Amino acid sequence: MVRIALAGGTGGLGRTLLDELAQDDDNTVFVLSRKSKLPFENPKNVRCLATDYNKVDDLAHLLQTNGVHTVISTVNSHTPEVQAAEKNLIRAAAQSSTVKRFIPSEWGIDYFTDDERLPLPWKIFKQQSIAELEKHPNLEYTMVYNGYFLDYFGMPDCHSYMLPEIPYIDIAACRAAIPGSGDDKVTLTYTKDVAKFVKELVRSDDKWPARSLIAGDVVTLNEVVEVAEQVRGTKFDVVRDPLEDLRNGKVTEIPAYLPLYEVFPKQFLLEMMAGFGVAMATGVFAFDESNLLNKKYPDIHTTKMRDLIRAHWSGR
Question: What is the pLDDT of residue 74?
Answer without folding.
Answer: 97
